[in-house]
From TrEMBL:
Taxonomic path: Bacteria, Pseudomonadati, Bacteroidota, Flavobacteriia, Flavobacteriales
NCBIfam families recorded: MJ0570_dom
Protein source organism: Dokdonia pacifica
Chain segments annotated as coiled-coil in the UniProt record: none
The name this protein goes by in its record: MJ0570-related uncharacterized domain-containing protein
Cross-referenced Pfam families: Diphthami_syn_2
UniProt xrefs under InterPro entries: Diphthami_syn_dom, DPH6/MJ0570, Rossmann-like_a/b/a_fold
Length: 215
């Protein structure tokens, strides 16, 4: 049961891949959507070279395509179909937890490519999932966040102390509502830890982004 993983580079897609492996599925290729310029990921603002380093640490290829938000779905289905043919995958793994509209979209695009959507984290308790990720060895740092958190949270590693801080200011522990996004630098199935440095900070569209460098 070979699968492609919708890969943001963050903790949820990473943990979904890990849990899918534990269920007996075989990861075959990662799929990431870049912005229209092709230099950063559409969702998390992660540089391409860092996403490629993650794929190398996992030991499977990563497929990129550039897209605006307006053309996102059409392009996603097209590339999904191409990957199904190239890698003979039967499933697509996604890291969403409990937002029904996200699941409906993922099932829609998977159906269009004649494969099945798998959501290993679905309906899990948000905080419990993050604590389980930490316990299982997923190391992730905040690389973008809203103004409720502010730029001082950029570059911080997700741990139990940070979760307490997030809850104290009314931010969801998992960031499932878009409060923050992460970059995974190590996981149980990585061959090596990534050495990532934050070399600056930027603000765009009222959202804060870490400027990252792969050492």
């Amino acid at each position: 049961m070979k699968f492609l993983c919708s890969w943001s580079g963050g903790k949820d897609s990473c943990y979904a891949l890990y849990k899918a492996q534990q269920l007996g599925y075989t990861p075959t290729v990662l799929l990431n959507v870049m912005n229209e310029h092709g230099d950063r990921s559409r969702s998390h603002g992660i540089p391409k070279e860092i996403l490629m380093a993650q794929a190398e640490a996992i030991g499977i290829p990563i497929h990129f395509f550039n897209s605006t938000w307006a053309d996102y779905e059409v392009n996603y289905i097209k590339h999904l179909k191409d990957l199904v043919k190239t890698y003979s995958v039967s499933h697509a793994v996604f890291g969403d937890i409990d937002i029904a509209s996200h699941r409906a979209w993922e099932e829609k695009v998977s159906h269009a490519a004649s494969i099945e959507a798998i959501l290993p984290l679905w309906q899990g308790d948000r905080k419990a999932l993050v604590l389980a990720m930490i316990k299982d060895g997923v190391e992730a740092m905040i690389v973008s966040c809203n103004q409720t958190l502010g730029p001082d949270f950029l570059g911080r590693t997700i741990d139990s102390k940070l979760l307490e801080e997030l809850e104290a200011i009314g931010v969801d522990a998992c960031g499932e509502n878009g409060e923050y996004h992460t970059l995974v630098v190590n996981a149980p199935f990585f061959k090596n830890r990534l050495n990532i440095q934050m070399v600056g900070k930027a603000t765009s569209s009222n959202y804060n982004f870490a400027e990252l460098q792969l050492e």
